[in-house]
TrEMBL record:
The keyword Disulfide bond belongs to this UniProt entry's keyword annotation: no
Protein keywords: Membrane, Transmembrane, Transmembrane helix
Record domain RPAP1 C-terminal: where: 246-311
Membrane-crossing residue ranges in chain numbering: 789-810
Pfam families, per database record: RPAP1_C, TPR_RPAP1
Disordered, as annotated region: 1-96, 387-418
Gene it is expressed from: RPAP1
Species the sequence originates in: Astatotilapia calliptera
RPAP1/MINIYO-like TPR repeats domain sequence ranges: 921-1142
Highest taxon above the source species: Eukaryota
Comp. bias regions, Acidic residues: 389-400
UniProt protein name: RNA polymerase II associated protein 1
Amino acid sequence: MLRRPKPTDSEADLLREQEHFLTSGAPSAASVVRRPDKRRGEAGEGEGRSGENEGSQRDVVTIEDLPDQLPSLTPAPPKKSRFKASRVTFEDEDAEERLDRHDTHISAVLSRIVERDTSSTPISLPAFTGMAFPKVLHRSETSNQVKVNNIISSLNFKISYHAEVFAADAASKIVWRSCFWLTNCHFHLQCYAVFTTMDASVNTEEDLPVKPQKEWVHMDKLEPEKLEWLRDLPEPRRKGTKKAMQARFDFAGTLIPPTEDLPTHLGLHHHGEEPERAGYSLQELFLLSRSQVIQQRTLSLSTLANILSKACAGEYVSVLKGSVTSTLLDAGLLFLLRFALDDSVEGVMSAAVHALKALLVCAEDEECLDCTFSWFRGLSSFPLLPSAQEEEDEEDEGLDESMKETAKEKEERKSDHEVARQDAVKGLLKMKLLPRLRYILEVVRPSPRVVQDVLEILTRIARHSSSSATQVLDCPRLMETVMSEFLPTSWSPSSQSIYGLPLSSAMKLLRVLATSGRHACARLLNSLGASERLSHLLSAEPNELLLEPTESLRITTEAYRLWAVAAGYGQACKLYIDLYPALVTALQSVHRLPPASDPLQPLQLQRFLALLSLLTQVTHTAGCHQELQAGMVSSGGEECPPPPPVSWGHVTGLQTSLMGHLKGFIKNLDDPLQKDGSLTLIPVYLVYLEAYRPCTLLPGRCIGGCPLLHWFNVFFHTRSSSVVCNAQAIPLGPEITNNLPGLACMGWRNRPGLVAPSSPFPLLTGLGLLLETITGIHKGLSSKVGLTVLGVFLFCCCLLVLYIFCFVYVQPKHRTNEVFMSISLISREGHSGGPEAVELGELKLHEETQKDTSPSLQTVGALLREACVQLPSIRGCFLTHLAHLESSVIVSRDALLGHNPWIKSHLLPELTGPILPSDWPFLPLLSLYEQSGVSDGGGLAVEELPQGALQAVTHCLQWLLLLEVWREEALKVVLPVAKFARLSCVFLCSSDLFLERPVQRLTWGLFRLSTKLDSLDLNVPPPGLASFQDLYSALVSQYEAVSFGDRLFSCWVLLPLQRRYSTTMRLAVFGEHVGMLRSLGVTLEQVTMMAFTSPPEDSLPLLRLYFRSLVTGTLKRSWCPVLYVAALSHVNSFIFSQDAAAQEVETARHSMLRKIYYLTDEVLLSF
C-alpha cells in the first residue's frame, strides 16, 4: 500500500516513492484535464492537435535521465497573436514606415494638430479705463461680448475639427481620449491667454503706479493687482481725532502714535489692516510668530520681548488702556513662547528665550531685593506666589473626607491651560520648561546673552516657591551643567564664549536656591560642589580672578551672599575658619571707601555689605554653639542639631576693627563726598553689633564709645525722609497680573519709598534693634544710653513699617487686618498700668458721666485700673488660647534672635491671609462658647463650664474694655454687629456665667460703649452666621430659660427690638416668646423711648399682636414697662390715624375699636 509523504521525508525518499508508484501502475488520485483555448483555435481533449504539439508528453516525468546539474535558463517562446494569421505583409515593406504609420504616441498626435489661421479675424476689446480690473458687464449691455463669443466659438470649432480628424482614424479609442484631453487643456489655455490679454490691455501704463521698463526682470507680463501696492499710502489720521485706535509698535517695542507718518523704508508698513499706519499690532505679531519664514518668526518674538520689557517698565501706563502683559497672557503668550522654545532654528529659540525672560523677570525687582539683602532680616523674602484662591469643587460636595480628592490629585487633573491661568510659573513647569532649558544650555550652547537670560529665568522660577526650587535642583543634568560650565573650579580668560567662565548670575541662582531651605543649601554645598567654588573665588582678591573688573566684583559679592545664606542655617562655618585670613584682608579695605567718581563704587559697596552680612550670620551661629553643646549632652539620644564648628572665640577678634570702622563712618557724615557711602554702611554695622546679644558688654561699648552728638548727627541726615506719608503715593504696578505677581519696584530709585537710596528705614531699623538689645541685656545701661524709650519706640515703629512694607509691595489686599493687629499688639505695652494712663482714662470717662449717672458707667474707671494691673495675666490668657500657633511663634522667634541652626528656610511662609482673624480679641470667649454650647434643633444645650472659664472670660472682657477706651481704632475692623454677636456668647456659654459679678461689671461697660455707635446695623449678617435673627432666637430662648429677669440680660435682648431694626425679631417676641414679657423689667429711665416708639409701626401683623397682648393682659406696665409703652403708642397711632389706608387696614382699625368698647381695664382705657 502506498503511503502519504511525511514532512520528515527527504528528496530521495520522495523520488523513491514516486518510482514505486509508477511501477505499480495504480491509478492516480487526481487527473489533469486541459481546457481548449478558443483564442488559439485549440480543440478539446478528443480533437486533433497541431503538428507541432503532437506527441508531446507533458505529464510524464522521466526520473532516470534527470541530469545532476540544472539546465541553463532560456527564454520562453513568445506568445502568438490571434491576428497574426489574418495580417497581410509584404517582404519589401519598410519596417520604419510601418511603425510610423501605426504609431499612437502623444507626439504623433501633437504633430497632426493644424490650427486655423485667424490672423485676419478682427477682435473687439473693451474701452481703456483707469481701473485695476475691467468692469463686469451684462451681456445685454454691450455688443463687445459677441466678439468674445466669436473667439470662444472659433476655439470650439478647433475642438470639433480635431475630433473629426482623429475619429476618422481607425487606430483605437485611446487615441481619441488623448486627443480630447489635449484639446480641452488647449481650450483653457487659449481662454486664459485671451482674458489675460484683455486685462493687460485695459490697464495701460499710464494707469499703473510705475512704468515698467524692458530691462526689468519678470515685467513682461503685468500684474496690476499687485502693482497697486506701489501707490502712495493714504495719509494718517488727523491729530484731532478722539476715537480709540489699535495699538501698533515698532520693532523696538515703542508705541507708534496713530498720527505719526513714518517713512516706508523702515519696514513698518505691511499689507494687513490699516496699511496707512506704521507698526504691528499684537495680533499681527502673534500671527508672524507662527510664520514659515524664519526671519519673520525671529523678528516677531524679538518685538514681543521689547514690548514686554517696556510694559514692565511702565512706559505704556499713560497711553494705553488696560494691561499689556495681562492681554498677552490671556491670548496664550505662554504657550506661544513654549512652542517657540522647541524651534530647531537657534535664532528663533534665542528670541523666545529673551521674550520669556522679559515676561518673567523684572530687573528692578531683582535690584531691589539685592539692595535689601544686607538689611535686618534681608536674607528672607516672600515667595512670588499668586494669591491663594479657594475653588469650590461641585464634584466633592456631599462626599466623605476620605473620598474627596487631595490638592495634589486635583492639580494633576488640571490641564496646562487651567494651571497657567492660575499660576504662570507653575504652568511653565507643567509644560516641561526645565528640561528644555537644560537642553539649550547643554546641547545648543547659545550666545552669552541667551545664557544670561536662561540663568535669570531659572532664578525667577526658584523665587516662586520652595517646590519650584526643588524642581530646579531635581531636573536631570541641569544644575550639573550650570556648575561645570558657568562655575568651574579653574578657567582661563576667553572672549569667544562664556562657557568655561564663572558667572555672577549662576552664583546668584545658587544663592536663591539655597534660600528655599536648609536641605537645598546642603545639596548645593556638598553634592554639587558649591563649597569648593566659594573657596576658589574668595581666597583671592577680585583683581586676581582673571575676569573683567565688574564681573569679578559681582561674582565675589554673590559668593559672599551665598555663604551668608548658608551660615544663616549654621552651615559652611568650617569654611570661615579656613578662609579667615582672606576675610581679614577683605575687611581691612572696607574703611577705605572708593571715591564717588569711581564707576565701580556701587559694586564695591555691595561687596562690603555682603561681607558684613556674612560676618553677622557667622556671629549668630557662633552664639548658638554653647547652647547646642549643652543640648547635645543633655538630650540623651534625642534629635538635636550638632554644635557648629565656630564659637565665640572665632568671632570676637573682629570686633575691634569693626568698631573702629563704625566710629569712622559716623564721623565722615560731615564730609559731603563720603556721606552717602557712610550712610549705606552704618546700618549693616549696627545689625552686626546686635548679633553680639549673648555678649553683654560689646553693644554697650558701641553706644557708650560714640558721643551723643554723633548719634544726633545720624538722625539729622534722616529728618527730611517720610516713608509713611508717601506710602499711599506708591503705585502698585499696572503690569502685575494675578497669575504672575511681582514686587512692584518699578522706578524704585527715583521715587519715595522704603527701599529708595534716601530711605532712613535701614538706619532706623538697625539703631532701634541695637538699642532694644542693649536695654534688654541690662536695665542699668538705660541711664547711660539715655535713649531707652526712644529706642523701643523706634524699634516698634520700624517693625510696623516693615510689616506695612511687606503687604504694600507684595499682597496689598491682605494688609488691613495685619496692620490693625500689629498696632494692637504693639500698643498693648504702651499702657502697662502706669498712673498717667489710668488718670487720663478716668478724666475722659468723667466728662461722659456728667450726661448719664448710671452706676455702670461710674465703675468704668475702676475697671480700667484693674485691667491695667492684670495685663500680664491677660497676656498669659491669650497665649494659652493661641497655643496652636506655638510652632509658628517658635520659628519667628528663632529668626528674630538669630538661632540659625534651628532655621529651616529663609523663604517666608506663603501669604494666605491674616495670621489671626480680625476678631482675635474675642478669641477666649468664642473658644469657650464652642466648647460648652452645642446647637441642637434651634435650642442650646449648656454643659458644665470647664475649669478656669470664668477667669478666661474676665481677662477677655478686660482686654476688650482697654481696646474700646484707649485703642478704639484697633477694633474698627470688627463690625458693630459682629461685636454684639460675639459678646452675646457671655449669655450663651452657660446658665449662670453672666450672673458672676466681674462678668456683670465688664459686660455692662462694654454694652454701654458698644451700643453708643449709630452704625450698629443688625440687618447685616454677622461673620460666621447666616443671619442675626438666628442668633437672636437663641438669645430669647436662653433668656426665657435662665435669665430670672436679670437687668443686663434684659437690656441685651431689648436692644434689637428698637423700631429701626427688623420687624422679624419683634414678631418673634410677641408671637412665639410671649412668656418673656413678664420678666423684662427694664425701666423707662434706662433706655431712650424714642428709639422704640418712633416712627409709628406699619406692620399689620405686629400691630395685631401688640393689641392682643395689651387686651389679654399678657403685657403689663409693671412687668415690661418699655415694651408696654411702645406697644400702646403704636396701637394708638394706628387706631386714631387719619391717613388713608387700604381696605384691610381700615377693617383692622374698626375691629380694634369695637373690641376696645368691651374693655374693663380702666388703666388701659385711659390711654
